[in-house]
Structures are given as structure tokens and as C-alpha cells.
Amino acid sequence: MAEFNNVSIAKAANILFEGNITSRSIEFEDGSKKTLGIMLPGEYELNTVHSEIMDIQRGKLEVMLPAEDWVEYEGPATFEIPANSKFKLKVHSLVDYCCSFVK
């Protein structure tokens, strides 16, 4: 899907790691939520509350999910992150992403 229709968009950005990861939250009419964002090159550790589906539109990164080895992704690509977990990222080039939250 190249675009989203009938959504509410948060005016304020989510800013992490001194602006190296930024996103905007969007909410759909059915209450589901996503974030659209950018990651700059660097190494990061993040955590989840809900399961997440990460759609990489463009860019290159490596991901280490819990109890797994590093896996490289280059957009377009998709991977899933389990709920209540920590994961690591090595972002090699600017990454444009869409993260869907699964409840």
C-alpha cells in the first residue's frame, strides 16, 4: 500500500537517540496504529510492548532480535519483532520505515 487514507496524524514527532530516529504516529478509523519514520546511520537498542511489523521502504540495516543472530535487510523488506522484547539495530544508510503495532 503506497498511501494511507482516513487517518489521524500526531502533530508532534517521536524523537529518539538525539534525533537519529524520528517518527510520526498515525491512527486509523478502526483504532489500529502505525508510525512512519526515518532512522539515521548508527547503532541502537529498542524495546517493544506490542508485537511489531517493520516495513523498510528503503535503506539498509542489520537487526538482532531476541535469541537470534544479526540479519541484514535492505528495503523494500519486512520483519517482525515479538512483544515485550529488546532488539538491536545497526543502521548502515538512511532507513525510511513504517512500523505497524499488532495487539
Automatic annotation (TrEMBL):
Keywords: Glycosyltransferase, Transferase. It comes from the Bacteria. InterPro entries: Ppnp (IPR009664), RmlC-like_jellyroll (IPR014710), RmlC_Cupin_sf (IPR011051). Its EC number is 2.4.2.1, 2.4.2.2. It holds the Pfam family Ppnp. It catalyses: xanthosine + phosphate = alpha-D-ribose 1-phosphate + xanthine; thymidine + phosphate = 2-deoxy-alpha-D-ribose 1-phosphate + thymine; guanosine + phosphate = alpha-D-ribose 1-phosphate + guanine; cytidine + phosphate = cytosine + alpha-D-ribose 1-phosphate. The keyword Mitochondrion does not apply. Catalyzes the phosphorolysis of diverse nucleosides, yielding D-ribose 1-phosphate and the respective free bases. Can use uridine, adenosine, guanosine, cytidine, thymidine, inosine and xanthosine as substrates. Also catalyzes the reverse reactions. Belongs to the nucleoside phosphorylase PpnP family. This is Pyrimidine/purine nucleoside phosphorylase. The lineage of its organism: Bacteria, Pseudomonadati, Campylobacterota, Epsilonproteobacteria, Campylobacterales.
